[in-house]
Amino acid sequence: MSSEKPNDVLLKDILDGLNALRKENSELASAIDGINGRVNMLAGVKQLQDGASNKASNGPSSVDKGKEVESEKTVEAVSQQYEDAAASVEASRRPSVSKFSKIILTSYPGQAGVDPLPMDWGHQDPKVRGPVVVSRHPGTIRRRNAIGAHGGSYSIYHALAVASKNLDVDHKPDFTNTEPAAQIGPFPQWSDKKKIVAMDPLGHLAPWLYKEIMDGEDVEIRPTIAITRAHMKLPELEASVQKGRLVPDGKICLNETGELAVTKVAVEPVWYLPGVAERFGIDEGTLRRTLFEETGGSYPELITRHDIKLFLPPIGGLTVYIFGDPAKMADPNVRLALRVHDECNGSDVFGSDICTCRPYLIFGVEEAVKEAQKGGSGVVIYFRKEGRALGEVTKYLVYNARKRGEDRASEYFKRTENIAGVKDMRFQALMPDILHWLGITKIDRMLSMSNMKHDAIVEQGIPIHERVPIPEDMIPEDSRVEIDAKIQAGYFTTGHVMTMDELSNVKGRGWEDIDH
Asked: Residue 150 falls within a domain, yes or no?
């Protein structure tokens, strides 16, 4: 009798062997990716430490010192208007959330138990500069050197999770395998306190740079930046491939469906208050008081803690989408295509045609991919500034006013000003910080028509070589009101700029007009 196995048994053995190999390869790839993440983190930490040791930081000039002293006086003056009897700070561990502990409404510099970790914003040595510490948890509250909370607008949901006992107030994050998926920086801009004032340049490395403080002093330190890799699929890009505008290369544009490989960076805002005030041409005291008053008095330490210079505001952050090798963004010899895009949920996600937002976003992604495929770098930066930072409720009220009126381009900005009192609150002054963090020193193709974005970037010393308007065939008919009004108000165009009389003839679609 033959000892050979039947063919079906042999086939099963072979398939089992292949499946085992696939599983082993998958586990190996996962392990390698985890190692790469730790390598990226360690490389970033080492470069920061080497840079600090090899180059001694220059002390501030007498002019800078004078400005800082003058700023400090204005802040202290505001603080004096609000100071009351100092509240005691309990250094002991907070009781469980089911029990009530003494509420600490605010704190004061020099108060017993208050010992903030040093923060020298802009210092090249990360150890001297110090970590951003904002938590009010028991081991951290007395060491805080920042006002606000992690998570931006999501900090309220964090509070709800604690209040409803879905989240343990003492939970400590496990950052295993969360290291950056790509290495970015360090760049000289990271240690220039005038170039980066609205984000923490060390935010992606914080738990590893300051591990000794976290472990040794029981201080909570969290990242404010995360870097990952992903795939992106947009239906318009599949059409771009079919029309031949986008060509799959298996690296960036992966296949015939237009699927893209992308490196993504999420950033939460961290404001260095003296720098933010300077960007807006106001004194720090005015900024602090206005932030306090206009948030319903939510952050009293803006007034009482003039020694704390950092604020984590309750606003949305930004996401960077990088196509191609991230290392090329900072290379002055490599071409860069960039789109800076402000959130528009109605158009970006749900396809509203009342504005050019989604078409311009798609155009920006496509052009960024093409630049990367040609050996350059393509970047799209998405800011959470819904409705020109006026919010979606205000935005829809404006839509109602437009559609119940004649919706003429000549009245476009007036409709918004009548309701909001201002036509735009995005204030692009803080926007270029992310460009400095990415190491960008010039932009070859700026995929934006906005004069405000252009001016803010150029004022920060980053030249723009070419401005690229949205193609005419990508502009929805109903959005002519928006785009023609913006062009007349200063948006870049290679075409005709209408007069106000001509704008009065540009009319949007009515609610019941289904043929327009």
From this structure: yes
Strand ranges inside 333-422, DSSP E = 336-342, 377-383
Cis peptide before 173 (omega within 30 of 0): no
Residues 6 or more apart in contact with residue 8 via CB below 8 angstroms: none
Residue-wise pLDDT for 419-444, tens only, equals 999 999 998 999 999 999 999 999 99
- Omega before residue 186 within 30° of 0, cis: yes
Alpha-carbon span 96 to 283, nearest angstrom: 41
The total domain count for the chain is 1
- Position 95 scores a pLDDT of 42
Detail the DSSP E strand segments found in 127-254. 146-148, 225-232
Q: Which residues contact 514 (CB under 8 A, 6 or more apart)?
A: none
Task: Measure the CA–CA gap between 236 and 258, rounded to whole angstroms.
Answer: 8
pLDDT score of 239: 95
- For residues 133 and 220, the answer to whether their CB atoms sit within 8 Å is yes
Q: Which residue segment(s) compose the domain that 182 sits in?
A: 102-223+271-311
3-state secondary structure of 96: coil
As a whole number, the mean pLDDT across the chain is 89
Residue 358 lies in a domain: no
Report yes or no on 137 lying in a domain.
yes
- Looking up tokens 């980053």 gives 462
Distance, CA of 154 to CA of 152 (rounded, Å): 5
* Residue 485: Cβ within 10 Å count: 21
Look up tokens 């999420």; give the residue.
266
Per-residue burial over 153-186, b if 16 or more Cβ lie within 10 Å, else e, is: eebeeeeeeeeeeeeeeeeeeebeebbbbbbbbb
The catalytic residue positions are 424, 426
Q: Report if residue 194 sits inside a domain.
A: yes
Cβ–Cβ contacts within 10 Å for residue 190, how many? 21
Contacts of 323 (CB under 8 A, 6+ apart): 252, 260, 261, 262, 365, 368, 369, 371, 372, 377, 378, 379, 380
Under DSSP, the state recorded for 189 is G
